[in-house]
Amino acid sequence: MIANRWNEAEAQAFLTAAGPDPRARDLALRVLTSRLIGRDPDLVMHGGGNTSLKSTAVDVFGEVVEVLHIKGSGWDLETIEAKGLPAVRMAPLMRLRDLATLSDEAMVNVQRLNLLDPAAPNPSVETLLHAWIPHKVVDHTHATAFLVLANLPEVEAATRELFGDRLTLVPYVMPGFALAKAAADAFDRNPEAEGLLLVNHGHFAWGPDARSSYDRIVQHTNLVEAWLADRRPAPLVPAAALPADQLALVLSTLRGALASVLPEAAHLPVLDLRAGEAERAFSTRADLEDLATRGVATPDHVIRTKAEPLVLRTAQQGAEAMRAAVAAYADRYRAYFDTHAPHADEPKKMLSPMPGLVWLEGAGIVGVGATAAAARIAGDIGCQSARVRADAEAVGSFRPIGAKDLFDMEYWSLEQAKLGSGKAPPLQGRVVLVTGGAGAIGLASARAFAAQGATLFLVDRPGEALDKALAALGQDHGAYGCDITAPGAAAAAVAACAARFGGLDILLSNAGAAVTGDIATLDNKVLRDSFELNFFAHLAFAQAAIAQFRAQAAGRGARGAEPGQILFNVSKQAVNPGKGFAAYGLPKATTFFLLRQLALELGAEGFRVNGINADRIRSGLLSSDMIAARSAARGVDEATYMAGNLLRAEVEARHVAEAFVMLARAERTTGHVMTVDGGNIEAALR
Ligand SMILES: [Zn+2]
Q1: What's the CA-to-centroid distance between 201 and ligand 1, angstroms?
Q2: C-alpha 76 – ligand 1 centre gap (Å)
Q3: What is the pLDDT of residues 244-283, one digit of tens each?
Q4: Average confidence (pLDDT) over 53-80
Q5: What are 634-677's pLDDT values in tens digits?
């Protein structure tokens, strides 16, 4: 059931902030209930739905004009503000109803022209529909329960049974001028109604004020939800979840297989697996292949997920079978494009033929996207639409719009605009795992990679530092807490990364700690422990990463532009021993050798291996106490000590981070160690 989230105290706070002007007060409550709707993913998701308020405004001449505040494109209801509900002059919008037709471009133009603030965002494509419903407040959702009802073949009878005349049905028309006309005509036939059911699309309700319209949205939705709940069969029992290591390899293989229909230079997509009980249960249904071909629950989902999910049964989860299934999917997509594109008003360019959703038998529902955010959105929509399909099949059947309407929507210029354009950042969608990701160099590197569009997965000891580091990067990155020297920890961390994002592109093996002691009397345990962290953990992460790289390559079937790479944080100790640093330098020298060995053995597969020798960076390795002690021992101040290099300039964590990014982007470089120490001839290589 949908909770009614209206809260009197919150409303009063909004009114207090708005002040005494009645227009400002109306708008404040309009913002509030827009957010209340936006907070519930079973009402709207990811920019779907829209809200409006009819009000007045004073123009530059001091004249009062009637306006429609309507959701601006690019705003999400959950976080909307008053400026996300720009005011459009009502009079011209009302006059448009006399026109027989209006092109999308002309509609967008006239809406923009009549904005009171020319800098405001574009008014929603459903602006005219809102304008022509003669109620002060109008709300539109794509509520999960309504998507079930709206896609039933017997939608009319079911709506009558549930609502009588309270909801008016509007047959499917693509959003835009024609839908607004159809909806306004439907309204006129039944002006006493409380709302509209847009067949194959969603729900509208209205009221004299923000609260009453919101109350109706909740009531109507819950009426449908209760009706569905009575008819819902007992949930399927999900299969046992796959073991993490197996799941990781399946996802990495899938990631490669999905990219097999992309150009060679394209990066692998990011995946977002939803493996909750409900998704795993859904993924075992016998009728997945049939359900997959039916279409989307509401038209604008097609731009996020494509019309059809790819179904992969357990037997199809090997590399070759997956690639064949993805190729067959792409062939169907090309056929769909070739069938419908010639009938479009203007020439269309085919979008990527890669699926946006995968139903992976036994494992769950996988969102696919060029970025982690796009994969997350596809995953959210995929889970909702799975519930819609299951419920619709339980009460009748799921019969959404057909292929031609889907094509019109998928290739509609106004929808494509939602996805944005512009050049992708260079490391967009690359999944980068950083060990020691919460430390100074690790986090600086993570930020540097994220700034280039990469998706980060931080590995460090569990605790506040790791939580804070992840929070600093944001929700579309991941983290995993462990002691990286524990047996099996590296493989588990890499598997967790693959489970979260579908694989791994770049391992930044960074974690380390300096251990000091005189070599002549060095305790054996101290040295062996240092080897665990400063060498064996590097080796274990490299081995686990290589297994994922190979699974991705097997899925893709041919080498892509960047099949995988490893970056090591070595140390100047590997080539230029410091007194008392044997326990650190010995394993680092071994790691340096490991880098060259890996570069030699992995080159033929296209995997690159490089590293950085950094020195004298403020970090966990070189604390402020140590800096104080060392500068005192040399009889210089701290700044002079830190700038004790050829350039006479302190080297910071960000300089190391930038060098890692440079190596990651140096496509024909492998087996290379870059020195980042401000210049030190004794530590120079060769
Ligand atoms: Zn809509």
Answers
A1: 6
A2: 13
A3: 999 999 999 999 999 999 998 899 999 999 999 999 999 9
A4: 94
A5: 899 999 999 999 999 999 999 999 999 999 999 999 999 999 99
Specify if 629 maps to a domain.
yes
Tokens for 131, please give them: 């304008």
In this structure, the answer to whether residues 344 and 446 fall within a common structural domain is no
Whole-number Å distance, alpha carbon 48 to ligand 1 midpoint, is 6
Distance 24 CA to ligand 1 centre (A): 27
Looking at the DSSP assignment, which residues form a beta bridge with residue 56? 66
Same domain, 39 and 136: yes
Mean pLDDT rounded to a whole number for the chain:
94
What spacing in Å lies between the alpha carbon of 331 and ligand 1's midpoint?
Answer: 30
Residue 316 CA, ligand 1 centroid: distance in Å: 36
Tens-place pLDDT, residues 404-452:
999 999 998 776 665 556 788 999 999 999 999 999 999 999 999 999 9
Look-up: residue for tokens 């081995």? 543
- DSSP type of residue 683: G
Range of the domain at 642: 622-650
Within-domain flag for 221: yes
Ligand 1 centre and the CA of 92: distance in Å? 23
Same domain, 20 and 38: yes
Q: How confident is the model at residue 241 (pLDDT cuts 50, 70, 90)?
A: confident
Kindly state the percentage of the chain with pLDDT values over 70: 99
**Distance (Å, whole) CA 185 – CA 181:** 6
Residue 424 covered by a domain: no
SS3 of the chain: helix, strand, coil, percent, to 5? 50, 15, 35
Residue ending a domain, choose from 169, 198, 231: 231
- For CA atoms 188, 194, 197, 201, the dihedral sign is positive
Structure tokens, 14: 């909004």
Region 497-505 average pLDDT: 97
**331 and 183 housed in the same domain:** no
Last residue of a domain, one of 396, 419, 442: 419
Give the model's pLDDT for residue 109: 93
* Shared domain check, 330 and 250: yes
Quote the ligand 1 centre to 126 CA distance (angstroms).
Answer: 7
Give the residue among 44, 117, 101 at the shortest CA–CA distance from 75. 44
CATH number of 550's domain: 3.40.50.720
324 & 290 share domain: yes
142 Cα–ligand 1 center, Å: 6
Same domain for 261 and 129? Answer: no
CATH of the domain at 100: 3.40.225.10
Does 67 share its domain with 116?
yes
* Distance from Cα 482 to the centre of ligand 1, integer Å: 45
How many domains are there within the chain? Answer: 4
Output the CA angle 37-38-43, nearest 5 degrees.
60
User: Smallest Cα–Cα separation from 494: which of 433, 537, 563?
Assistant: 433
In a domain, 41, yes or no: yes
